[in-house]
């Protein structure tokens, strides 16, 4: 059984301020009350072909010994 795509890891997912349509997809340009990958699967019958993995935002390690004393 193939694992279903998770929009939480997609760079096109965004959250709206509309309580009736909470989720959106920048690639397809729509908002929905359901996660976009579920809507795409329901409408087309296939998994989303445009899923693109988000780049992870890792915290940068700061070398305190070589800084000028300011961290911000």
Question: What do you see in this structure?
Answer:
The protein is α+β, with helices and mostly antiparallel strands and 72 residues long. It is 12% helix and 12% strand. It has one helix at residues 36-44; strands at 13-15, 23-25, 30-32. Strands 1-2-3 form a three-stranded antiparallel β-sheet, with no helix packed on it. The chain is elongated and about 55 Å long. The model has no long low-confidence stretch (mean pLDDT 82).
Would you kindly provide a brief summary of this structure?
By secondary structure, this protein is α+β, with helices and mostly antiparallel strands. The protein is elongated, with a radius of gyration of 18 Å. The mean pLDDT is 82.
List the SSEs and their pairings.
Layout: E1 13-15, E2 23-25, E3 30-32, H1 36-44
Antiparallel strand pairs: 1-2, 2-3
Overall residue-averaged pLDDT value = 82
Return the structural class.
alpha+beta
Strand content: 5-15%
- H and E order: EEEH
Shape: elongated
> What integer value in Å does the Rg equal?
18 Å
Ends: how far apart? Answer: 48 Å
Helix content: 10-25%
Largest sheet: 3 strands, antiparallel
How many strand elements? 3
SS summary, helix count: 1
Strand order across the largest sheet: 1-2-3
Q: Give start-end ranges of low-pLDDT stretches.
A: none
């Amino acid at each position: 059984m193939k694992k279903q795509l998770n929009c939480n890891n997609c760079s096109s997912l965004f959250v709206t301020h509309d309580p009736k349509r909470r989720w959106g997809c920048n690639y397809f340009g729509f908002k929905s009350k359901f996660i976009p990958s579920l809507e795409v699967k329901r409408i087309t019958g296939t998994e989303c072909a445009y899923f693109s993995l988000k780049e992870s935002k890792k915290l940068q390690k700061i070398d305190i010994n070589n800084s000028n004393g300011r961290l911000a």
